[in-house]
Write a structure and sequence with these properties.
single chain; 421 residues; mainly alpha
């Protein structure tokens, strides 16, 4: 008789474990019978169930409600960790602003150390070799970059001035809205959503890399062009670009040097990519915390109602820009469904990872820097929620369009063969 093995206390179904045990034990028993009698024993359908078979019929215990809630909370945190940490950072900054405004030395830790860590890791991970693909689809890549940097920001600038004129938004949040739309395309989010929606991944990689590089110079130029250098946002243009060169460009260049000449560093970063991604995330959260500590310490008058109004206006702007980009892509690239899907995300997405350090560098001395940052922090999760919602529909659209184009090609080939005959 086979010996019953005591099962470990884990959350696998009992039937799965018993199936594995039976697979391991039964062949041994059959081999023994074969050796003894020289023939296979006939199967008996009426034989009594073995202990393991009887146990397999017992249903696995259902997890408790507390365990289900715990698992759901853990999963929700993992999926939305950045947003949760940013909200916690803002609440902590509101509770005691002097900690992040003075005592944590934010002028060194937040504006230099954290920013340089972010861009050093970005430089190591930046696939600059993809830039060689620029001329393969020059028209499409130009469309995405021009729309993302110039169309979205110019429309938002005009819209925000109108909201200020009508006294719907305060000046600080209106300026923050313009700044948010002047930063480049996201990297990871665009790649993930493009892949999920069946879009062109190679174009997503190129536009994310290229947008991040030119944003170092283009985003500050757009912000200063729209908002000028006066008022609370008073800045010295030369100083801004000097600081950006040290905090942003230099770490990216160093990261690219590591990528090109040190496989050891690249392999180490790649091996521990999730951990380094968390380092970047925590650095961003720390910058946000220090930024809002300075803003709350200045005690500017912006109500919660103004913030909710801005959220509604951002949703309207984002959806409007997506619709405009979709029809523009349809007009320019009617028979390229994968490019249209990638372009929809690339034309309207904005990067928190690039945007927050740039805003902090430009308006380092401004007490309104928190309000300049807030619209981007709202735009970021909003684009993720909308993108996740439409991704399955876009994937179905790509399949339909490819089938239609394939049928058209076959019909055209048949017509040509008939004409030749």
């Amino acid at each position: 008789m086979s010996e019953v093995v005591q099962k470990p206390m884990v959350d696998f179904p009992i039937s799965v474990l018993d199936a594995k045990e039976n697979d391991e034990e039964e062949p041994l028993n059959n081999n023994n019978n074969d050796n003894a009698s020289g023939k296979l024993a006939p199967e008996d359908d009426n034989k009594a169930p073995t202990p393991t078979e009887a146990e397999a019929e017992v249903e696995a215990p259902k997890p408790s409600a507390l365990c289900c809630v715990k698992n759901w909370l853990v999963g929700f945190y993992i999926a939305n960790s950045f947003l949760i940490l940013v909200l916690a950072a803002i609440l902590l900054a509101k509770a005691y602003p002097p900690l992040g405004a003075k005592y944590l030395a934010p002028r060194i830790t937040a504006t230099w150390v954290a920013v340089m860590i972010i861009f050093l890791l970005s430089g190591i991970g930046l696939k600059s070799e993809e830039l060689a693909n620029a001329f393969k689809r020059l028209g499409f890549n130009s469309f995405v970059q021009i729309f993302n940097f110039f169309v979205v920001s110019s429309v938002t600038f005009g819209f925000s001035r109108l909201m200020v004129e009508w006294k719907v938004l305060p000046q600080s949040l209106a300026d923050g809205l313009t700044i948010a739309t002047s930063v480049p395309i996201t990297v990871n989010m665009v790649l993930v959503l493009t892949k999920s929606a069946g879009g062109d991944e190679a174009s997503a990689i190129f536009n994310a890399a290229f947008g991040s590089l030119i944003a170092v110079f283009l985003s500050p130029g757009l912000v200063l062009m729209y908002l000028g250098v006066g008022g609370f946002g008073s800045v010295d243009v030369g100083t801004v670009f000097y600081k950006l060169s040290l905090r942003v460009i230099l770490p990216i260049v160093v990261g690219q040097i590591f990528r090109k000449f040190s496989k050891t560093v690249v392999n180490f970063v790649t091996k521990h990519k999730p951990k380094f991604k968390k380092v970047q995330e925590y650095a961003l959260v720390f910058i946000v915390y220090c930024v809002f500590c300075r803003t709350f310490e200045a005690d500017r008058d912006t109500s919660v109602g103004d913030i909710f109004i801005m959220i509604g206006l951002e949703l309207f702007l984002l959806l409007s820009m997506m619709v405009l980009a979709w029809f523009g892509l349809k007009l320019c690239f009617p028979n390229e469904p994968k490019l249209r899907v990638m372009g929809l995300f690339g034309c309207t997405h904005k990067s928190v990872a690039m945007g927050i350090p740039l805003i902090n560098a430009i308006y380092e001395e401004s007490p309104l820097v928190g309000y300049y940052t807030l619209p981007l922090l709202i735009w970021h999760p909003m684009q993720l929620v909308i993108g996740t919602f439409i991704a399955p529909r876009l994937s179905a659209f790509v399949k339909r369009e490819e089938e239609r184009l394939q049928k058209n090609d076959l019909s055209l080939a048949e017509d040509n063969s008939g004409d030749n005959a």
